[in-house]
Write a structure and sequence with these properties.
Blueprint lengths: L1 H20 L1 H15 L4 E7 L5 E7 L15 H4 L2 H8 L7 H7 L3 E3 L25 E3 L12 H13 L3 H16 L10 E2 L2 E2 H12 L5
Parallel strand pairs: 3-4
Antiparallel strand pairs: 1-2, 5-6
């Protein structure tokens, strides 16, 4: 009952309350992003949601549009400013996703929505992560995400889907609060982990073994 009806109702209420309460913060951040990083204020990118339906995810931008003499964008590490790093470290860049949650594209808790280009490289079991709405935060993110390889991250996502209950969501929410207040970067999104780009890793595995399985 919770998974089918209660979770969506709770998402709607929490996101609406969050938008209302945090509206001054959203306004201030929008102004700061515009002044420090330029326009547009929001970073928008297509991501796969529930049942792999594509939606547009919105976040505050964290990088400038600095380019070289040929007009090509400079590397991410160069364009990511101290202010951008602060937004990511505090997860403040994720606040516009409250509108994605209100709309129904996302949930407060669920597997993080990753890149569309990753879709061909999930195993059948890993595809279970797309049987629920993606989340603002999730079990993988609060389980030491930056210290887990891709295989173990997706194991956590599947574990969440298979044990989705109100109690599980409360657990992940509490762990998220602890993580953010602890000023760690475990909940910060990173579509190219320390071990490397997921799609490239799975391509190589497929070429070497003929299978996406580890």
């Amino acid at each position: 009952m919770y998974k089918k009806y209660g979770k969506r109702c709770l998402d709607f209420i929490l996101s609406l309350c969050g938008i209302i309460v945090l509206s001054p913060v959203l306004l201030v951040l929008a102004v700061l992003v515009r002044v420090k990083l330029g326009s547009p204020v929001l970073f928008k990118q297509e991501r796969p949601g529930k049942d792999e339906k594509i939606f547009t995810l919105c976040k505050f931008r964290t990088m400038t549009d600095a380019r070289d003499e040929n007009g090509n964008l400079l590397p991410d590490a160069v364009r990511l400013t101290k202010f951008g790093k602060l937004l990511r470290a505090t997860s403040l860049d994720e606040l516009p996703e409250l509108f994605n949650i209100l709309k129904g594209d996302m949930s407060v808790i669920g597997p993080r929505p990753l890149l569309v280009s990753y879709l061909p490289y999930y195993t059948e079991r890993e595809r279970l992560r797309h049987s629920v709405r993606p989340g603002l935060t999730g079990l993988a993110q609060v389980s030491g995400r930056n210290f887990l390889d891709w295989d173990r991250r997706f194991q956590k996502d599947v574990e969440y889907v298979e044990h989705l209950t109100f109690r599980m969501d409360l657990k992940v929410l509490w762990m998220t609060v602890q993580t953010v207040l602890g000023h760690t970067d475990e909940v910060a999104e990173d579509t190219g982990a320390a071990e490397g780009n997921f799609a490239e890793i799975r391509k190589k595995r497929l070429e070497e073994t003929g299978s996406l399985e580890a």
